[in-house]
Write a structure and sequence with these properties.
Elements: H1 3-22, E1 26-29, E2 48-52, E3 58-63, H2 70-79, H3 84-89, E4 104-109
Antiparallel strand pairs: 1-4, 2-3, 2-4
Length: 110
């Protein structure tokens, strides 16, 4: 396979993954569980994800690459003040920085 064919093949792979991410199920967070703590209802595997604000505008794109609990752990980092998303979108205050009852949405792909 020639150089340009490899580039075109790589571009197709990227487009396919992007389409898969956009068509993935969307989950709301934060969600309080029966114990009163926040637990995102997403995979514990590592993933690429998009966070949408309540107006369906993309406010953050990220990936979980560390942590034993994958995407669940990463979203909890966002909710509890340990991320750039928290600083930029939640005024550095985690779940307390959003308007009361405000829900963000997240979609992910593995």
């Amino acid at each position: 396979m020639g150089y340009f064919a490899k580039i075109m093949d790589e571009n197709k792979k990227i487009r396919d993954l992007y389409e898969k991410l956009l068509s993935a199920p969307i989950y709301s967070f934060p969600n309080k569980n029966s114990m009163g703590s926040f637990k995102p209802s997403v995979t514990e595997k590592h993933a690429v994800y998009i966070i949408y604000n309540p107006k369906d505008i993309v406010v953050h794109v990220g990936r979980s690459i560390r942590g034993r609990k994958g995407l669940v752990q990463r979203l909890n980092n966002h909710l509890y003040g340990n991320s750039s998303f928290t600083i930029e979108c939640l005024s550095g205050k985690g779940k307390q920085g959003s308007t009361k009852g405000e829900q963000y949405n997240v979609s992910n792909t593995l």
